[in-house]
Amino acid sequence: MGMFERPQYKALLLDIEGTVTSISFVKDVLFPYAYENAEQYLQTNIKSDKLKSLVDALMELSNQEAAVDDNIQKVESTEDWKAIASNVKVWIQNDRKLKPLKDLQGFMWEDAYLSGKVLGHVFPDVKYVLNDFYIVQIPVYIYSSGSVHAQKLLFSHSIDGDLTPLLSGYFDTSVGPKIDATSYKKIADQLKLQPNDILFLTDVAKEAIAASDAGMRVFLVVREGNAPLCPDIMTRFKTINCLEALVCHDD
Predict the structure, then answer these.
(1) What domains, with CATH codes, occur in the chain?
(2) Can you tell me the distance from the alpha carbon of 237 to that of 205, in angstroms, rounded to the nearest whole number?
(3) How far apart are CA 221 and CA 99, in angstroms?
(4) How far is CA 52 from the centre of its chain?
């Protein structure tokens, strides 16, 4: 793909699932891997230094959730890997956006990536577009509900090689939920940019609305396998079918 004129925005912010990687990769590869290996991973690593603070957080979260959810077990000790693993599997099944869960998944996926059991899926257009943005010095950032650690693993072990040199930074739900406009304002503040100077790409209507409410420019990404979008949302936001369309858009 050839060079393109510098766009009016000063930074590109990308969602991951359904935008740069297929939903099926997350749903059919990453989540099942974490679900199937939760017990073994926690049994092996629960006493490790790298998991110490995370296990504390999982225990605290478990006991909070157990008070309102009969499917969640109370955890009496940080060494009770069976109860924690049981809770983790319930949260994965329910696709809960819980930071301790996401952090644990990141550690588990690290093993999978480093062992070569998993390679991060990215759509064919992603590498070329990231390279073009890198050449014209428009920084590209990632914002995903998956932990920053998990994001870096996906891009550093992708089917197209290590893409992290082409990315300028990462955000996860530490800045807030992706359907909350305040989260996008925080990202703009951290980047020292006005929200209107940032273009956000996502396949999720609620995220698009939140980013737009924060003042960001927004394109909706429509890819095969993504959830259908209602006509009103597709009328409200410009839609693109691949990142290569960005070379044709400068607004």
Answers:
(1) 11-21+120-248 (3.40.50.1000), 27-114 (1.10.720.60)
(2) 9
(3) 25
(4) 24
The answer to whether the beta carbons of residues 23 and 204 sit under 8 Å apart is no
3-state secondary structure of 87: helix
Helices (H), ranges, 214-249: 231-236
Contact 105, 30 (CB under 8 A): yes
Distance of CA 10 to the CA centre of its chain: 21
State the Cα angle at 201 between 250 and 34, rounded to 5°.
155
Residue-wise pLDDT tens digits, 98-149 = 999 999 999 999 999 999 999 999 999 999 999 999 999 999 999 999 889 9
The CA-to-CA distance between both ends of the chain, in Å, stands at 20
Q: Which helix (H) or strand (E) holds 200?
A: strand 198-202
